[in-house]
Design goal:
- The protein contains 19 helices and 15 strands.
- The longest helix is centred in the N-terminal third of the chain and has 15 residues.
- The strands form three sheets. Strands 8, 9, 10, 11, 12, 14 and 15 form a seven-stranded mixed sheet that branches. A six-stranded mixed sheet has the order 1-3-2-4-13-7.
- Helix content is 42%, strand content 14%.
- It starts with a helix and ends in a 5-residue tail after the last helix.
């Protein structure tokens, strides 16, 4: 398995260290599809028997079992409108859905990541506009985190039902290291810069970073762009505005990023460390680094491999702090705001009605919410924190809920929001920016050339 796609994109958030009843974590699934239905064997295609619907999604535990159970409950309650579910491994799904949609053979319900992938479906006329449906079903929309709709929206219209779970990027820190050096967690970007020489003097890297993986570097820029200029800065890029990467706030963010790098803010040799190996996490829990900006999914890895680092109360966590004078709201977050379900424009009216009934009555129902919480995830439902028990991970789960539910803006990871072509250029230039081989202005020029691609 590729930990990048399973951890970050397929959201196996607690792939190590957290118990899940009845599920084996970090299962990769088969390379081909498997099918389940209470009434029929699944096939592909946009049509199911009668007025039912087809639904393609991903394998992998514990997500697979939760998705299957939701469909099973719907089918048990709707004998005449069955949903036939087909599950694929991550990479196989991406190829299959692209080919099927191009041939007009896609399923009724399409599972996706929102953002750039959804926009490509919209531009090709492959999915329905759900804006009016949400207007008519305000109760469905109102129960979900408002910030989850950002990556479901293209040109001001909603084309997907936000579903499943949220995974924010957070700032982790080693409490023992902070106590040893006699400093407090940063409350601003200025504090971060002030802490760097203090940790370096103590021969402790201020920040761990798996820089070879590139997308780990990207998380820093996502926060700095937001904290300095607000969500409008990247939104302009997503909207295809000319020279959007040259926004003064963007240049300032890129400049501040290189300021931290030049001050030796990261572990020596960070550009040769991979996130896939979890070496960046190990640097934090062994005390070789004081802090780490990373996805919430790393909590499970640190709990499972870090001895008593987590269970002993030595892991601290917080939202990324604000930048003095910045326009961004410090409550904003970045990462994976949700997963997304769209309806094929090629489906029959009866199939579409079945899909909408599924969205309204089954997706994120009470049982599914409990299952996600039990698997160590935060469902994107207002009040879901009431389902969090009193276990040893309760504080962590409540922290994630507070970020996700309170974020005025929850930006999707840039390389998911952009097209694959633009995303690859982005990651390549981020690596060069962190290696100090290009300037902020050169970065902006290179990325401006990808706008609209």
């Amino acid at each position: 398995m590729d930990p990048r796609t399973t951890s970050r994109r397929s959201f196996l958030t607690f792939a190590a260290g957290l118990p899940v009843a009845g599920a084996t974590l970090a299962a990769c699934g088969s390379s081909g599809p498997t099918s389940t239905s209470s009434s029929a064997a699944a096939g592909g295609g946009s049509a199911a028997a009668g007025s039912g619907a087809t639904y393609w999604t991903l394998t992998g535990q514990p997500q697979e079992d939760i998705r299957k159970a939701t469909v099973a409950r719907f089918n048990a309650a709707n004998a005449s409108t069955q949903i036939t579910q087909t599950l694929f491994q991550n990479d196989a799904y991406k190829q299959k859905i692209k080919t099927a949609l191009g041939a007009g053979q896609g399923p009724t319900i399409l599972w996706g990541w929102g953002g750039g992938g959804l926009k490509s479906w919209v531009d090709a006329g492959q999915v329905d506009d759900l804006t009016s449906w949400f207007g008519e079903n305000a109760d469905v929309k109102d129960k979900l985190f408002p910030a989850a709709f950002g990556a479901a929206t293209v040109n001001g219209k909603i084309y997907a039902m936000p579903a499943e779970t949220v995974t924010p990027i957070v700032l982790f820190y080693n409490k023992k290291v902070f106590e040893k050096v006699g400093v407090q967690p940063p409350q601003s970007w200025g504090d971060i810069l002030d802490l760097v020489p203090k940790f370096n003097a103590a021969k402790i890297a201020p920040f761990s970073l798996g820089g070879q993986s590139r997308w780990t570097n990207m998380m820093w820029l996502e926060f700095l762009f937001d904290r300095i200029g607000g969500p409008e800065v990247f939104q302009a890029v997503f909207d295809g505005e000319k020279d959007a990467w040259s926004n003064p706030a963007a240049i300032q963010a890129l400049t501040e990023m290189q300021k931290l790098i030049k001050a030796n803010g990261f572990i020596k040799g960070f550009s040769s460390i991979t996130a896939d190996s979890n070496a960046d996490q190990a640097l934090l829990y062994t005390g070789k680094a004081a802090m780490m900006v990373h996805g919430a999914w790393t909590y499970g890895g640190m709990k499972g491999s870090g001895g008593d680092f987590v269970t002993g109360g030595n892991l601290g966590y917080m939202n990324f702090p604000g930048v003095d004078g910045g326009k961004g709201d410090p409550s904003d977050s970045v990462g994976n705001p949700a997963q997304y379900l769209s309806i094929s424009s090629k489906a029959t009216d009866a199939e579409k009605e079945t899909a909408k009934k599924f969205f309204k009555t089954a997706v994120l129902d009470a049982e599914e919410q409990k299952a996600w919480i039990g698997a160590g995830n935060i469902p994107i439902v207002q009040g879901a924190d009431s389902l969090i028990g009193a276990g040893e991970d309760a504080d962590w789960l409540k922290f994630q809920y507070s970020i996700a539910s309170g974020a005025k803006s929850f930006a999707q990871s840039w390389d998911q929001a952009l097209s694959p072509t633009a995303a690859e250029v982005l990651l390549d230039n981020i690596a060069k920016l962190f290696q100090l081989s290009i300037s902020p202005e050169q970065f902006a020029t290179n990325l401006n050339a990808t706008i609209g691609q």
